[in-house]
Design goal:
Elements: H1 2-12, H2 21-29, H3 46-55, H4 59-83, H5 88-97, H6 99-109, H7 114-138, H8 143-166, H9 189-208, H10 210-218, H11 220-225, H12 230-271, H13 275-299, H14 305-323, H15 329-358, E1 365-367, H16 368-375, H17 379-391, E2 395-399, E3 411-415, H18 417-439, H19 449-455, H20 461-470, H21 486-491
Antiparallel strand pairs: 1-3, 2-3
């Protein structure tokens, strides 16, 4: 009860609005005159195009850059709310379901009026959401099947309506077909104000309803138990998502807008696993992909802006997927490779220790053949393992002078102080864990070896000290073998 009261109090607190420096940039860009025109002239050189874009001296460049930034921020933030709920296909469905609404809005206004198209697309989006909900509640159709039905059905209807519009007198030059694949040069000042309105709604939702959306999205039953209007919040999320999708259609089109909802958010989830940073990273990645894609498209010749933005976003994803310093595939591969190499080295040291133990430590060296027998490995494999020990300065090699008849003389392995310490620690970890499982977890002594083989390589010194205290600093394992102590490690021999 106290937890519920505390939660309600925390939700009634005034949420401090975070710094949004990008908002100042967006508002400043709105002060420039805005009108649509060709972005770059074919006669411009590559250097001239780059200069025009970076200096923002061209009105058309400012308008396109502002539109792509607003789209990247909106889709990035909304995408994080969708992807983290495992509803990526829902965003794709909604982006296709609004196409009939785009056609209805155009038929209503007889022009490509942004507000009319926004109203028609929003209505179509709600009809699609309502149909999905109806199919789930009144039939045995699952959500993924319902999403596929609505996506294909609404998209086919929209294509038919757009084809019909193109044959009307007022539809020939409408440019309504550009909503399929996008055409950034067709942006108007009205489009930009519509996109800004959508972005502000998304920003307000993310700031003022962050906790409510988080609880309702990840634990609806708990949200209902504390009195949150879960259904209302869900439909509000779909409404804002529809705004983000509809206002992005002019740039990337119906076909690709879902990519901008999914890719930046998926990239952000590779960087962090906390929701608030995911929102921030997703928005930033969407913004950077949009601005970079617009720049690359501006530099190139006849490069479509929408697809280039998606490709840039995908390149960001691949870069993070492979090169992230903590979660990247290359980092994991190197970590796994190094871990496997370390485990193999430690297993070889443990085998050397066990072979020395078998002769009661009467000698301080063993032959490569003895190691191969203990490891159940071939002689070439044993020589490779010994070479690895020597390379890491865990062992030294010398000829066996006691056997004067042999030619060539057998090679003996002697552990260095570094190798001896590592070998003792691995054996100590193994035998301590065996004893811990038999004494504390009541395992049978003949069932603890395999578990100890895995845990011996990952036990930290602090954990080992705690186990030693729990077991009162034991000297023997469940099988009667001596457990090396820190004193034995420091002295360099077992007593």
């Amino acid at each position: 009860m106290n937890g519920t009261i505390h939660f309600k109090k925390s939700m009634r607190r005034n949420i401090q609005i975070k710094r949004i420096g990008m908002a100042w940039v967006i508002l400043s860009l709105f002060t420039f005159p805005l009108h649509g025109e060709q972005i770059s002239a074919p006669s411009d050189s590559l250097l001239e195009r780059g200069y025009r874009f970076l200096t923002l001296s061209d009105e058309s460049v400012r308008m396109v850059l502002l539109g792509t930034i607003l789209m990247g921020l909106s889709c990035g933030i909304m995408g994080s709310l969708i992807v983290t709920r495992r509803l990526s296909l829902f965003g794709d469905t909604l982006s296709h379901a609004v196409l009939p609404g785009v056609a209805v809005g155009f038929l209503w206004s007889h022009s490509k009026d942004s507000w009319a198209i926004l109203a028609g697309a929003t209505l179509a989006g709600f009809l699609g959401v309502a149909l999905i909900s109806l199919l789930k509640k009144t039939s045995r159709i699952r959500q993924d099947s319902a999403l596929g039905l609505v996506l294909s059905g609404f998209y086919a209807l929209g294509i038919c309506m757009l084809t019909r519009i193109q044959k009307m007198e007022f539809g020939n030059q409408s440019g309504i077909d550009k909503y399929l694949f996008g055409q950034v040069v067709g942006l108007s000042s009205t489009d930009l104000w519509t996109m800004a309105f959508s972005f502000l709604l998304i920003l307000a939702l993310s700031i003022f309803l962050y906790k409510e959306m988080l609880v309702a999205g990840f634990d609806p039953e708990y949200a209902r138990s504390i009195g949150l209007p879960v259904d209302f919040l869900q439909y509000l999320l779909w409404l804002i998502l529809a705004f983000a999708v509809i206002t992005s259609l002019q740039i990337v089109g119906v076909v690709l807008v879902s990519a901008l909802l999914v890719i930046p958010a998926a990239t952000a989830t590779l960087i962090t696993d906390r929701m608030r940073p995911i929102l921030i990273w997703s928005g930033l990645l969407g913004c950077m992909a949009a601005a970079t894609g617009a720049f690359v498209s501006f530099l190139g010749s006849q490069l479509p802006t929408g697809p280039i933005i998606v490709l840039v976003s995908a390149s960001f994803f691949l870069s993070v997927l492979f090169f992230h310093p903590r979660n990247g595939l290359l980092f994991k591969w190197f970590s796994s490779h190094n871990r496997n190499h370390r485990i193999a080295l430690e297993n070889t040291l443990k085998a050397v220790y066990q072979e020395l133990e078998s002769i009661d430590f009467q000698q301080d060296s063993i032959s490569v053949g003895q190691l191969a027998k203990r490891r159940r490995a071939s002689m070439p494999q044993a020589h490779r393992e010994v070479s690895a020990l020597v390379e890491k300065q865990h062992a030294t090699l010398h000829a066996d002078q006691s056997d004067s008849s042999a030619s060539p003389k057998p090679v003996l392995i002697s552990l260095t102080p570094k190798g001896w310490g590592t070998a003792c620690r691995i054996v100590r970890n193994h035998r301590l864990w065996e004893l811990y499982l038999t004494n504390e977890a009541r395992y049978a002594p003949d069932h603890v070896h395999d578990d100890a083989e895995k845990i011996e390589h990952v036990l930290g010194e602090e954990t080992v000290r705690r186990i030693e205290r729990i077991l009162s600093n034991p000297r023997k394992d469940p099988h009667g073998k001596l457990i090396p102590s820190q004193r034995d490690i420091d002295r360099g021999f077992i007593s």
